[in-house]
Write a structure and sequence with these properties.
By secondary structure, the protein is an alpha+beta fold. The protein has 5 helices and 20 strands.
């Protein structure tokens, strides 16, 4: 019996020594760090030094070398997975988070919120008054995704550079603010030559890069697309530009306009261009062949005219001075102008200008340097030349024919007299 009692005492002493070695103390109520604890806690470590305390539903830490309350959760390799400080800050993936929540990312997702497809809110902000704003909803249950701010919402890049702003009235400004400009969406590109780029790679059916519609009734103008360019630039300034490139399409259009639907007094234009009266302004300019199937009409209403005079006589003599020539355009030198191919017939503008200056006009057209050569020096090359308005030659030739007819009739009268 003595041997059994002695063995039991030895086992109890060994257990107590082992517990002391690993620093484990289990009590039923005591004061730790001058804090009244509830019954039932466990301490791992030195009570007066570094330790971790498990007290019912709490975990408390003490570190002799760090502020009280710093809790490390490390992985098996010793890397810090999570750190909580006595200031109430929580850092995930590293050290020294200065904010309430800091997530340090190295090659993996920082924070991922995955819903359970049950319509539960994934993330919610609650202010001091108890009102909430949900910014993640994983189910279609009429819970609107809301990102809300009492003032405007700004998105910055490079810490301080503002990239986008949503204003109080709902307008969206992308890029730096443009003073005195306010539209539902404004894009200000300061570091690129494209303000807004939209691509559509859908391969089936009709597709649109941008689809714009203006359907409101009432009074005033309605524009599906409106382009302005007021830049004081040395290169090309274009309000709306269309470019097409396709080797397989049946028809390809850089800009396509259509006037359809409706009858009555409403005037419709497929494409409408306007230009103020200036030698270098053109409402429409075609750099290449131009074809039409309808009527090309020039205003000639008497009400639109003044200083109406009969044409000067002796136009037949001037017509007889005209030199009709055949020629080919120099498309090797002026390839960028897309001049007509093959043999042509007409007049030399310089010769016609001496006889009928009203039928000629000095022209000036600008071409980008990439159109003239393969260089990309972003320059504009201006071609100046004299053009011929062949339509204005119609009344001149008409008058000449009339004069010639008078001469024919006079000769016929003389012949009749001689026959008698």
């Amino acid at each position: 019996m003595k041997k059994v009692i002695l063995s039991t005492i030895i086992v109890l002493l060994l257990i107590q020594c082992t517990i002391a070695q690993i620093g484990l103390e289990v009590n039923q109520g005591t004061n730790i760090n001058n804090v009244d604890e509830k019954n039932g806690y466990a301490i791992i470590g030195d009570e007066s030094g570094s330790n971790i305390t498990f007290d019912n539903n709490e975990v408390q830490t003490k570190n002799a070398n760090l502020p009280d309350g710093t809790l490390f959760i490390n992985d098996r390799a010793g890397q810090v997975s999570m750190l909580g400080s006595s200031a109430g800050n929580l850092t995930v993936g590293g050290y020294n988070g200065l904010n309430k929540l800091t997530v340090r990312v190295e090659g993996s997702d920082g924070i991922r919120i995955a819903g359970n497809n049950m319509g539960n809110i994934g993330l919610q902000f609650i202010n001091e008054t108890g009102s909430t704003s949900s910014i993640f909803d994983d189910f279609d249950d009429n819970n609107t995704l809301v990102i809300q701010s009492h003032d405007e919402i700004a998105f910055n890049s490079n810490l301080t550079t503002e990239a986008m702003r949503i204003q109080n009235n709902g307008d969206i400004q992308i890029g730096p603010e443009i003073p005195f400009v306010s539209y539902p969406v404004t894009v200000n590109a300061t570091n690129d030559n494209v303000g807004l780029y939209v691509a559509n790679d859908f391969a089936s059916g009709g597709t649109s890069g941008i689809y714009s519609e203006s359907t409101a009734g009432g009074t005033g103008n309605r524009y599906g697309v409106q382009g302005f360019s007021f830049a004081a630039a040395t290169g090309e300034v274009i309000g709306v530009r269309g470019v097409v490139s396709s080797s397989t399409a049946t028809s390809a259009y850089g800009v396509f306009g259509s006037a359809i639907d409706g009858t009555g007094t409403t005037v419709r234009y497929g494409v409408y261009g306007t230009a103020s009266v200036d030698p270098n302004h053109y409402a429409v300019f075609a750099n290449g062949d131009m074809c039409y199937t309808g009527t090309l009409c020039t205003p000639s209403d008497r009400r639109l005219k003044k200083n109406i005079l009969r044409a000067n006589p002796n136009l037949l003599d001037k017509v007889m001075q005209l030199n009709v020539v055949t020629y080919d355009y120099d498309n090797d030198t002026y390839k960028h102008m897309n001049l007509a191919q093959g043999q042509q017939i007409g007049f030399l503008a310089q010769e016609l200008e001496e006889i009928f200056p009203l039928a000629t006009k000095k022209q000036k057209h600008a071409f980008h340097s990439t159109q003239v050569s393969k260089s990309d020096d972003n320059e504009v090359i201006v071609e100046e030349y004299i053009g011929v308005d062949y339509i204005k030659l119609i009344p001149i030739l008409t008058k000449a024919i009339q004069e010639q007819q008078v001469q024919i009739e006079d000769l016929q009268a003389e012949v009749e007299l001689l026959r008698k």
